[in-house]
Amino acid sequence: MVEIEDAPPSSAAGGRALSPKNALLNKYEVGKILGCGAFAKVYHARNIATGQSVAIKVINKSRLKNSATLTNNIKREISIMSKLRHPHIVKLFEVLATRTKIFIVLEFVKGGELYSKVAKSRFGEDLSRKIFQELISAVSFCHARGVYHRDLKPENLLLDENGVLKVSDFGLSALADQVRLDGLLHTFCGTPHYVAPEVLAKKGYDGAKFDVWSCGVVLFVLSAGYLPFNDPNLMNLYRKIYNGVYRCPKWMSPDLKRFVSRLLDKDPNTRITIDEIKQDPWFGKGYKEVKFEEIEDLTGVVKEEERKLVDLNAFDIISFSSGLDLSGLFDKKFSSVDDVERLTVEGPPEKVIKKVEEVVKAENGSVRMRKMKDCGVELEGQNGDFVVRLEVYRLTENLVVVEVKRKCGDAVLFGGLWKDKIRPVILQQPEVEVAGCCN
Asked: Which segments constitute the Protein kinase domain (predicted)?
């Protein structure tokens, strides 16, 4: 396996992909670098099996060791993005890892950041409306699921090759369960020019109203071509935001100015809500609500009879590690077959269970199998020599996690059955080790 940073310079600079032989985890050809952040690099890559372009965010594990905040942000981002499926939100495909790095595989949005487009020239009112409608569609979807982005800005909004908006970077997002007893969030966060005035007051704020304010700043930037609140002195900037001091350009239509004033209302109690935004005449021109059924169709949602399967998102994988410590997740520490092994494989859960069934049948009665309520089975050796539970959790649309636990009995007897017969049959493609001890 090749570490991405060790790739030849031409791969990053010239855009030539690595050969499949040296591809990341035998799955992705990694090409040019798309961007760098304080703790991660993002690369363009291609899925070898499907040819699909993806973006891979690469996080060096060593950068997480001394930062609980950064670690929590990454956990939160993975957890949230794994649950959000919407045509205007960047899709998370899977999370992979080596001993030293974490790889977050995301939808590749070819057009790049909205910021780079609006920095060249302000948008016309119709285009600004269309992009803002897509933004509100995504934000409304998030709020309905208890997710507040808290860092909406053109740098975190991407456009695909057709000019369709995609919201990205949920690292500063909050969940509804983070709200305190007063019904408010209290963490100071966001980007200075886009932060809501009530956040500056440090008395608690409503996450949904914070996002509406940020959306208002984004709309202003799209239409005006500059920030509504700006000052080289940070304290002066915050003073302008807190007092709601801004001026609309003369080319803004009266309806747009009125609408912006409702978005940038410094009083969160009277600021326009998402539902009211959708009823506004300026916003509503040509707007078509994305229906929930349409979203489900886009994501390849499972059939009704499959809904009983246990879903497992990437955050749950992290939770498998002792103390929720990321370092424990990606270090390969094996003990004995007495404990547990977890690995990820491609394919639906039912297919994994069927393969196990076939192996058991071939044992001619020496192993008995009982199906469990959820997607799993219990295997018992002849005369009760061992009892093992095998459960399958859905990770993404195409990946599952197989967890094998020995409940009791002879570890050696089951170890041979697992290592020599069941495991090889389950793994049709190279697996990605998640955590475990059977080897």
From this structure: 28-283
Phi-psi label, residue 181: left if phi above 0, alpha if psi -120 to 50, beta otherwise? alpha
Last residue of a domain, one of 273, 297, 321: 297
CATH number at residue 216: 1.10.510.10
Structure confidence at residue 314 (pLDDT): 44
Assess whether 178 and 290 both reside in one domain. yes
Give the closest residue to 25 by CA, choosing from 61, 49, 51, 60: 49
pLDDT one-digit tens code per residue, 295-334: 443 333 333 333 333 344 444 444 443 333 333 333 333 3
> What average pLDDT score do residues 130-154 get?
95
What is the domain range of residue 139? 114-297
Q: Whose structure tokens read 């993005």?
A: 81
Q: Which value, to the nearest 10 degrees, does the dihedral of the CA atoms of residues 211, 281, 249, 223 take?
A: 60
Whether 293 and 166 share a structural domain: yes
Among 254, 280, 297, identify where a domain stops: 297
Does residue 161 surpass a pLDDT of 50? yes
According to the annotation, is 57 in a ligand binding site? yes
Q: Which of 14-28, 83-97, 398-412 has the highest mean pLDDT?
A: 83-97
Active site residue: 151, 206, 211, 265, which one?
A: 151
- The pTM of the whole model exceeds 0.90: no
Establish whether 374 is a catalytic residue. no
242 close to 263: Cβ distance less than 8 angstroms = no
